[in-house]
Design brief:
The protein is an alpha/beta fold. It has two domains: 185 residues, Rossmann fold (3-Layer(aba) Sandwich), CATH 3.40.50; 62 residues, Arc Repressor Mutant, subunit A. It contains ten helices and ten strands. The chain has an eight-stranded mixed sheet with strand order 1-5-4-3-2-6-7-8, with helices on both faces. 41% of the residues are buried.
Length: 264
């Protein structure tokens, strides 16, 4: 590997206990929830996250790590003076301010090109001490290339199983089915974890009563529209709507596309 240029902390000072996390640029709500679940535990256990700073899963990994007070390493496929994508300029400086690192093999003014990203993926793999976790990957995606690089390098590879009807879960499901990755459903599958600092007690063990409890139980199985909730719990749509508004204020549920989701 070439000499790494970096901004912030020397990456080799914070990668002794680190996990590379890659995934689709077309991240779904499911992928976002998975990132949040894993990152909270990784940060609570002093694991540095590593990703490629691109749209979707990469950006979410870096942002959640920063939000939870952890350290993250962003590996560029361009020079350090070229913030790409430009929408991540604020995140760029947050990573540095929080004790993380921005790294690149390229000269500071080097522009991004497609051929540079596979080389970037090698750096992502080589910096990780624990291996690579794949969160949402389409068929023949760049994330699968990274997983293959990790396997060839003798690194551990984990993948998150996803819905069989989701195009961005095809790659992960295939990795698991073919034995090219271990299935991960929690950070415990990757590290021995201590008590999470970021446990959302009110959301994981909510003290709910009456209609709130009925709605919560119904949404534990799957996201639902108001009419669907009404059918499942046999209650008034009007009362359910009012209760959902209160649950939203409590950050217990979120509405998206007409469906209500639990904030896990």
């Amino acid at each position: 590997m070439k000499t790494l240029h970096f901004r912030g902390v020397d990456p080799y000072k914070i990668n002794k206990k680190s996990i590379a996390i890659v995934g689709s640029r077309r991240m779904t709500r499911y992928g976002k929830e998975v990132v949040d679940k894993f990152i909270s535990d990784f940060v609570a256990n002093d694991v540095t996250t590593i990703s490629g700073f691109m749209y979707g899963v990469d950006t979410e990994v870096h942002q959640k790590t920063v939000d939870y007070g952890g350290k993250t390493i962003a590996v560029f496929g361009c020079g350090l003076d070229v913030i790409y994508p430009p929408e991540n300029e604020k995140l760029y400086y947050q990573i540095i301010e929080k004790g993380g690192s921005i790294v690149s093999e390229y000269e500071d003014l080097a522009k991004p090109h497609l051929w540079k990203f596979p080389q970037r993926n090698k750096v992502v793999v080589n910096l990780s001490s624990l291996g690579v976790l794949v969160i949402e990957a389409g068929e023949n995606s760049g994330s699968l290339v990274t997983a293959n690089l990790a396997k060839k390098a003798g690194r551990n590879v984990w993948a998150i199983p996803g819905p069989i009807n989701s195009s961005v879960s095809v790659g992960c499901n295939e990795l698991i089915k073919n034995g090219d990755a271990k299935m991960a459903t929690s950070a415990r599958d990757i590290i021995k974890i201590k008590q999470p600092r970021f446990a959302k007690a009110t959301q994981n063990n909510p003290e709910l009563q009456g209609l709130e409890e009925k709605i919560y139980r119904a949404l534990q199985l799957e996201p639902l529209e108001i009419d669907e909730i009404a059918v499942k719990i046999d209650e008034s749509v009007v009362e359910i709507g009012s209760t959902l508004s209160i649950m939203g204020i409590k950050s217990l549920v979120t509405e998206s596309g007409g469906k209500y989701y639990l904030n896990r």
